[in-house]
Amino acid sequence: MTDNPSLARTLTRLRPPSLQRASALYLFAFVIVLFGVWIPDTFLTSVTFRLVAADQVVIAILAIAILVPLVVGAFDLSVGAMLAFSLVVLTWLEANTELDAVVSSLIAIAACGLVGFLSGLLVVRFKVNSFIATLGMSQILGATSLWISENRQIAGVFSEEFLSYGRRDVAGVPIVFVYLIGITLVVWYVLQATPLGRNMFATGSNSEAARLSGVKTDRLVWGSLVVSALIAGLGGIVYGMKIGSYSNSFGPPLLFPAFAAVFFGATQFTRRPNVWGTLVAVYVLAFGVKGLQLAFTSGVYWITPMFNGVALLAAVTLASRSGLIKLRRTQRRGADPTPAATDGEPTGRHRTSEDITPTTDEVLR
Length: 365
Known about the structure:
The protein is mainly alpha-helical.
């Protein structure tokens, strides 16, 4: 210990993050070391890292789309179907019109924005719970996608130039990963460095208190659903540039890994839904699954959901246990039950898994 306050602050900054706040980073280090020793010839290769980086881009974009409304306390379960809807609109336009692919992409993204607007209308004007409204909207989108595609795969409609925007590399990095970093930086900046982002977090933390403070909470919820739909639509376009075809099995199956990444990421760093925690969670889970797939070359079809589920439960349980221990310590102090706030945490209360998962009342509200 030191009596110098400046030196003490410097030492505090240099201290490694706690396991509770950065369990994803420790898990990532464990995965790299484990599979680096176990299967170094297949795991520690540039091919593996490039494949994982590119393959997880759509899931990561989907997770960011989920994160935006979650910040204001709303759920968007339609984003998986929104991916497919965006892609089927794009492929249909390319197959049946003479429109340029860029124009078709903008139309597809705008169509998704319109769907997000309708979801916001149901949630804000008609007071339908966002969980239920977006769940119903996802079924409508699924039916619409099947109708447009006539329940068949659509392939061979994109030009080589259009596909090159999803398949080329930039300085050895897949270009789709560059797109992901760009989207992540924009969302991070808005949420963390603008009054709009602070108002969104205030709305998600306590909507009524934020409204009484002058925050237009209804507009934020409505707008967040529109932005979520636009981001999901963009994810569908990125997938189209990368894969080059539409399949009716695309979209909704990506919903759970995206939600798992958002909730896993919410236990990291700031202990609330955050962009970088979400991105780290996506790739920690992906590298863990890839390592297991490379280590066990056959009969591992069950590994992906198993690893995602176990990692999510372990991280949330760890964060919840940490919050409960701190809460009990605070209660034992008795005379001074309200410690000073740190890192934006509310005073007198420590976060548990209940802070990042919906309560029954919230779901049915």
